[in-house]
Amino acid sequence: MTLVSVSFLIFLAAAVLVYYLTPQKGQWIVLLLASLVFYWLCSKGFLIFLLLFAGIIYVFARSFETGKKKLLVLLEVAILIVLLIVLKYAGWFGDGFVRFLSTISFQKPLSFVAPLGISYVLLTGIGYSVDVFRGTVTAEKNFLKVLSFLSFFPAITQGPINRFSDLSGQLMEGHRFSYEALVFGIQRMLWGFVKKLVIAGRLNVVMLELTGSWQGSKYSGAYVVLTVAICSLNIFMDFSGCMDIVIGAAEIFGIRLPENFDHPYLARSMPEFWRKWHITLGEWLRDYVMFSFTMSAPAKKMNKSLKGKVGRKTAAALVSIIGVLFVWLVFGLWHGISGTFLLAAAYYALLIIGGIVIEEPVKRFRSKYPQFTESKGFQIFRTVRTYFLGIPGAYLMLMPQVKSGLQFLATIFTRPAAQFVVKITEGEGAGTFLLGLDIYDFTVLILSLILWLVVTTLHRKKDVRIRLSNIHIVPRWAILLAVVIAVVLFGFYGDLNAGSFIYQGY
Fold this sequence. Notes:
Number of helices: 21
Largest sheet: none
Order of helices and strands: HHHHHHHHHHHHHHHHHHHHH
Low-confidence stretches: 96-113, 417-431
Structural class: mainly alpha
Distance between the termini: 17 Å
Number of strands: 0
Oligomer: single chain
Shape: globular
């Protein structure tokens, strides 16, 4: 059962009905039971691993009342990470380890048992444990409430990564039925269906056509650049569409989850891009990896030692660079033990480090030429530059092998561009109009991208749902009905195999 299946919509409707028929004091129990049932329907017996992770997290958080907190939190993290590695990569270690050492192709590992959302449970649980360790939250005494926090079913598949201080209170307090929350939540989910089913499904077809399903492609040269751009846009539509569905589903229950995207393609620098893309993961890495390193005794000692040799600013920059390397190493390994993810992490790390290195010269340049650097034209240049610097990372993450993926990139320089419009009139694939799409699907893709641009532009200034609520009921419901019909016709029945999410396996 995926978030874009009819079965999920039926399950969600039943959960909402029972939730609001239950007295507020017991509503959190309804959510807990719904989450466990959802997990069982998706993963069957793997529910035991969710309970195991929750039990470990609960026991360790409660034990932080003793005097050896640091040792205990390190032990907990080690246990959880080892369990995660065993669950996700047991098959890879058993069948592919020798091949991994003997080849430079760095094949992507296949998941072994990988229980649903276990990576997100790990990050959420570690965040909760560290917060208890630091004293920013109090350890929850009720195991079922900890389990409810970790297993909240809309968010367990792909996040967002929640904080105990933000979510637990909302889960436990209960909510009165709100027509506005119901309508706004459904509208948010509907927009997620458009992005995932209507747009991302067709972008995926184009991407696979350009890459030859990653087995060799007739396209090369300039069209490889198009492939890189399509990969980035495909991940964004897929992942942000999932977040819209998740946040909308939670909103129906009266629960507000954190946003995970904030117009990242309008960022003007790579650090800003990562503050706007997968926001909760970036904040998690900042608070629990970067902060833990920079505030550690070894980092402080290093900073103090370097001050006398290279100066205060340079010493701070060097410590930050080491922290950035550590953060992106964790980022790459969390996504998967493969050369593709590590290469993508290394790419982004180099961009961030480059920004740290040139930070002072850039500041001096801006102070010297403020009229130029504050001009609208220069700001547009920064946005365009950041976009083209950021999109290759998505391609590096999606390619199945380092070797074949880089060979495909190299055709930009080694082979001239292949024919752009490919018409097939006979045999398999007959009816293809452009880049794997027929004229019907190509038109739908273009129109839906235009719709996305319009809605995104309007939403930057004011929530589109509020705009809709302010217009007359007849055109308002006509618009919503048109979107529902479009999702059903072009999404659910689009035959694009768009049910699974790119990030669901991480």
